[in-house]
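in:
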C-alpha cells in the first residue's frame, strides 16, 4: 500500500504546526511534520522512544540536552530516550521533516520546564 500525507491522519500541534501520521504503529511511528517560520515545540523527553528527525525541506534547529544543532535538507539526528530536546524553526521559511519513533511515542512524553 502506498502511504503519503494525502491519505494520512492529520493533526495540528503548537497552534500552527502540521503533522501527518504515515505509520501509526505502537512499535514504530513515522510522522511527516511541517513547522511554519519562527515556530517551536516545547522542550520534552521520551522515556522509551528513540527518535530520528530527518529534514526534507528548510532548516531545522534541534536543541538536544543543551546543545543547538542546525539540520539542513537531507540531514538527520537521532535522539536517544531520556534526552531533553526541542525542535525549532528559527528561519523565515517553513521546514518539513520526518520524525521516526521506535517504539511509538503514545503516552511517552514528559514536558520539561523552559
Amino acid at each position: 500500500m502506498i502511504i503519503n500525507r494525502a491519505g494520512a491522519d492529520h493533526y495540528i500541534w503548537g497552534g500552527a504546526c502540521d503533522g501527518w501520521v504515515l505509520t501509526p504503529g505502537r512499535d514504530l511511528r513515522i510522522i511527516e511534520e511541517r513547522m511554519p517560520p519562527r515556530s517551536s515545540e516545547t522542550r520534552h523527553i521520551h522515556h522509551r522512544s528513540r527518535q530520528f528527525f530527518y529534514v526534507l525541506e528548510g532548516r531545522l534547529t534541534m536543541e538536544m540536552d543543551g546543545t543547538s544543532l542546525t539540520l539542513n535538507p537531507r540531514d538527520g539526528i537521532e535522539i536517544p530516550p531520556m534526552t531533553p530536546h526541542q525542535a525549532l524553526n528559527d528561519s523565515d521559511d517553513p521546514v518539513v521533516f520526518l520524525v521516526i519513533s521506535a517504539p511509538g511515542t503514545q503516552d511517552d512524553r514528559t514536558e520539561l520546564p523552559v
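note: The mean pLDDT is 96.
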